[in-house]
Amino acid sequence: MIKVVSALRSLILTNTQIRDVIKDRIYPNLIPMSDGGDNVNYPCIVLTRTGMTVEDSKDRGMPCSNQEAQVEVVILSSDYDEAVDIADKLYKTVMRYQGTQNNLFINDIRYEGSFEAYTESAYRQVLNFKIRGL
After folding, report:
1. Helix (H) or strand (E) run with residue 96 in it
2. Can you give the pLDDT at residue 63?
3. Could you report the per-residue pLDDT of 16-67, keeping only the tens digit for each?
4. How far apart are CA 86 and CA 89, in angstroms?
């Protein structure tokens, strides 16, 4: 589950409506400034793994590890409606997903809550997800 951010990035990019707007501007932890200056290319998404737990157990004598990661997804845009639209599409893309992305098996993605804000010349939609995998 350490690779959960890169797996989630790949999953988000499977939605062509998001990819057409965001391009490849999905970043881990922070937003790079364009041209080395103070400008940010909007819209963009920032993914941050905010926690991770591992539960070891034995099933019929075979060791197994259930892993769970919490991920914060921040959508930033200079336009409020655009940020909300991307958040809605992203939610529908990842919610209850089960499958493999970047060689990481994802058993389930659950929505944990959200909030919105306006900071540093950008509207922010912040969504929190719990991702379970093996």
Report:
1. none
2. 52
3. 999 999 999 999 998 887 655 567 889 999 999 999 998 776 665 555 568 8
4. 5
Measured between its terminal Cα atoms, the distance across the chain in Å is 8
61: domain CATH number is: 3.30.2000.10
Paired tokens of 12: 């988000």
| Of the candidates 83, 92, 99, 85, the residue with the CA atom closest to the CA atom of residue 131 | 99
Report which of 27, 2, 29 is spatially closest to residue 12, judged by C-alpha positions: 27
**Domain encompassing residue 106:** 4-133
Separation between Cα atoms, residue 5 and residue 13, nearest integer Å: 12
Model confidence over 7-23: pLDDT tens digits? Answer: 999 999 999 999 999 99
20-24 contacts at long range (C-beta below 8 A, 24 or more positions apart): 21/82, 21/86, 22/86
Quote the tokens at residue 105.
């098996």
CA angle, residues 17, 4, 87, in degrees to nearest 5: 30
Q: What is the tally of structural domains in the chain?
A: 1
C-alpha 7/C-alpha 11 separation (Å) is: 6
